Amino acid sequence: AETADGPLTVTSFTVGGNTYSAGDTVTLTEGELTLNTDGSYTFTPNDNFNGAVPVITYIVTDGAGDTQTSTLTISVTPVSDLNDDNETVTVAEDTTATGNVLDNAETADGPMTVTSFTVGGNTYNAGDKVTLTEGELTLNTDGSYTFTPNDNFNGAVPVVSYTVTDGAGDTQSSTLTISVTPVSDLSDDSETVTIAEDTTATGNVLDNAATADGPLTVTSFTVDGNT
Predict the structure, then answer these.
(1) How far apart are CA 2 and CA 212, in angstroms?
(2) How far is CA 101 from the centre of its chain?
(3) Residue in 169, 165, 180, 172 with CA at minimum distance from that of residue 132
(4) FRET label pair with 150: which of 36, 98, 164, 194, CA 20 to 30 Å apart?
């Protein structure tokens, strides 16, 4: 605003069909508004409000007493309240990984659901059971998941990217990273042998040994402190 006739002041304003003096603080359905005589204003929207605020019509007066009516239009753009951290899980070989990807998710806008997920370059609906080279994966709409590795598999599982949607329709993509640590499959019981005097003891210490990983061999032995 500009004038040649002295200082400008806001004398009053109208919003929502009601007129107020400059400097008043007004509580609206959309939030709280203050418009001061020097023209400064603040509007604090209510939590999670977005959209159009009722148009504010205000009157400006100059030093000569001239007046003019103008408007202030405020719009609040939506911002997603949905937040979900990426998940990283490590399990031992031959152990099922379970959990819930929504445990670290939050929103102010209603319930959250997993709508879809992508793994190995393919996209699936939440709830689908997927057979991977590494094992079997299920990720449900409520965020719960299971990954059952194939027998004796260890290593990295392809990263699972999933989409979360909240009650306001906001979406966010996050990831689930699963790693399987190796566990030895080798088992060998200790041997105890009893023979008669002047008799040779024979046998095989591998008779009670087992492994899923190829042939067994004895590599060294220690007796009476010597190897």
Answers:
(1) 88
(2) 7
(3) 180
(4) 164
Percentage above 70 pLDDT, the chain: 97
Q: What is the mean pLDDT of residues 170-186?
A: 91
What are the pLDDT digits (tens) for 74-95?
A: 999 988 788 888 999 999 999 9
104 neighbors 84 (Cβ within 8 angstroms) = yes
Residue 57 and residue 19: Cα distance in Å, rounded? 9
Ordered by start, the domain boundaries in the chain are 9-76, 83-181
Helix (H, G, I), strand (E, B) or coil at 53: coil
Closest listed residue to residue 54, CA positions, set 105, 87, 19: 19
The number of helix segments (H) and strand segments (E) in the chain equals: 0, 23
Nearest Cα neighbor of 126 from 111, 137, 115, 142 is: 115
Q: What's the pTM value of the predicted model, to 2 decimals?
A: 0.64
Question: Alpha-carbon distance 20 to 58, whole Å?
Answer: 9
Six-digit token pair at 179? 């790693």
| CA distances (Å), origin 97, targets 84, 107, 118, 148, 184 | 20, 26, 18, 6, 19
Chain centre to alpha carbon of residue 59: 49
209: closest CA among 195, 200, 219?
219
